[in-house]
Amino acid sequence: MNRRHFLAGVASGGVLAATGFGVWGGRARAAEDDIPVDGLSPMTGAAQPVTQAERHARLEKARDLMDRHGQDALLIEPGASLIYFTGIHWWRSERVTAALILRDGGIHVVTPAFEKPSVAESLDVAADIHVWQEHEDPFALIGRLLAGAGVSTGVLGIEESTRYFIVDGLRREAPAMQQISAWPVVQGCRLFKTPAELALMHTANAVTLKAYGHVIPRIAPGMTGGTIKAALNRAQTALGGSAPWAMALVGRASAYPHGTNEDKPVAEGDVVLMDVGCQVHDYRSDISRTIVVGAPDEAQQAMWRTVRQAQQLVMETARPGLPAGDLDSAVRGFYEGLGYGPGYETPGLSHRTGHGIGLETHEGIHLVKNERRELAPGMCFSNEPGLYDFDRFGVRIEDCWTMTADGPRWFTQPPESLSDPVGTLAPMPA
Fold first, then answer.
1. Helix, strand or coil, per DSSP, at residue 47
2. Mean pLDDT in runs of 10 for the chain (430 residues)?
């Protein structure tokens, strides 16, 4: 089947359906116990959550950045940034819950009255909780708080993921305030991980890597991607990881970086591409591994070796002060010299070389062309310069790393051979 006929099959729902929720969403056709996880025990008992003292230090840094960037107040919705600054674990809905951090004052948390006890459970810093009833306008309450703080004619920094209806409501109730992006403040804190954060990420990566070590040797013909995914998630849970996720793409589906709706049984000679992660006290892992079930052919081995070389090129190129996009450019230059691409064309690398990671699997700046923000100590990224051929298969090897003053340091050391595809846990980054 040539590429044109194959893509026509995709479009018509034949060979592969368009990406959809795919194997990532998980339709395990085989029995869930095809790969048992007996004998695995939690390895996260020594992991220490972020302390209240560290959150206070984050708030002090944020206020310093607010002063530097001329922001009088900062508004944050539920999500990673709210956890980062306050410890509050909550979700987003049409009922507004948000934190208002004042540059020259305290913290005000706004939430529905009936949610106050639940919101207060995870609050980890000193803050005043203000409530609104179902018939009341939460934006009017926030407007009164801003006026009471004497900043209703000042500058309000809006955390970058805030939904539009909240921005619009604040514009209505605090019309004299200038709204600007809080990126320099929020990311000025979150981009640079402390030793405590690095330790949690290291532990999360250790869990995921050990799950791979348990599951990969047990993958056999007849299993589906859904079965493999389920086993990887159960293994991470048994090892103490929380919120586990996994993707397992078999055969031609491996050429699509985020999968397809196909859940093909594994056959001898098939490529299986897996992308897996979990959390430890909110901090994330993200590791990809590619294997061949049975004996790999020369094309599979050659592509795997090339991807591993590209991964290493990233680490050899990375240094403090280098624009993050230069890592992506280095990889594409290497691949194009071998005949892949050009650019995002396939066969080749169809996505960026890496992404920021921490409290979110994708966060902060990315390793992508034209990203001119510079690498600096404390930043953390994935390193995943995969290669994909829509007519055949794909290969991705992904490990995360942090930048130090002395150069990049792995969380997990990538494998060096397709015959030994798991890799090892790297020493805790200094």
1. coil
2. 32 28 33 77 98 98 98 98 98 98 96 98 98 98 97 97 98 97 98 98 98 97 96 98 98 94 92 98 98 97 98 98 98 98 98 98 96 98 98 97 98 97 94
How far apart CA 76 and CA 341 sit, in angstroms, is 41
pTM of the model: 0.91
Report the C-alpha gap between 249 and 31 in whole angstroms: 18
Interacting residues of 198 by C-beta distance below 8 A, sequence separation 6+: 380, 402, 428, 429
Look at the block and give the residue holding tokens 């479009």. 11
Local structure of residue 194 (DSSP, 8 states): -
Residues composing the chain:
430
- How many Å apart are CA 171 and CA 182, to the nearest integer? 16
How many helices, marked H, and strands, marked E, lie in the chain?
Answer: 12, 19
Which residue has 């869990």 as its token pair? 207
**CA distance linking residue 292 with residue 219, whole number of Å:** 10
Q: Where are the alpha helices (DSSP H) in 28-123?
A: 52-68, 80-86, 116-122
Classified as helix, coil or strand, 420 is strand
Give the tokens for residue 239: 């090892």
Count other Cβ atoms within 10 Å, centred on residue 419: 11
